[in-house]
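User: Can you write out an input/output pair for a complex, sequences first and structure second?

Assistant: Here is one pair. Inputs:
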Amino acid sequence: MGTLYIVATPIGNLEDITIRAIRMLHKVDVIFCEDTRVTQRLCKRYDIHTLLKSLHARTEYKKMAEVLTILKDGKDVAYVSDAGTPLISDPGAQLVREAIEAGVRVETIPGASAVTAALSIAGLYTNEFTFFGFLPHKKGRQTLLKEIKDMKRTAVVYESTHRVVKLLQELQDIGVDRMVCIARELTKIHEEVLRGTPKELQEILTTDTQKQKGEFVVLVAGL
Ligand code: SAM
């Protein structure tokens, strides 16, 4: 039986990958990835020529049998998502579950994740935090926003470029006027960390709309 390696990849800067991750991506028989074009760029940078196959959220269930057959054949498989740590607001959970059930050895090759990268520079309390991932767009959103409002721990939310201003408005609407940190484009050319109340941050982002572009982690200080 082969081993399934869950491998973290960079969240922007391609240098943010571990030596072990590069070695494993060279060594395994197959790399399953979310998008072969994205992972191809990483492989090119590190001269990795391992066979790439796609396994994304929509195909995770269908591809499971293929992955398990390869593993049962005694071959090693790596799974990577487009960026950061697989399973963290990314596919892979079902794959890991089924592999464990099938008696496959599953190993982590840890590395970058936007949640820990943002926490490490936010300047907020980090001994305890709650990670919400992406908030649902409709059903359940208000309940989670209310939970964040009343929370003693730091709240960490992933947000897309179109919705960050909306989130800041929603935080104001429910009466959050504590410190919020927006970590944008971490490890990339336009990396930026903004700190302030939701109202202050909304003003900054609407005055300079360039600041609304890219990928965001929003952190809300606990009570
Ligand atoms: N698996 C990834 C991880 O370990 O962080 C997360 C993947 S999730 C599909 C993508 C979201 O993560 C983005 O919308 C953003 O909220 C956050 N993110 C990823 N890269 C980022 C970066 N370089 N700077 C800020 N946020 C980032």
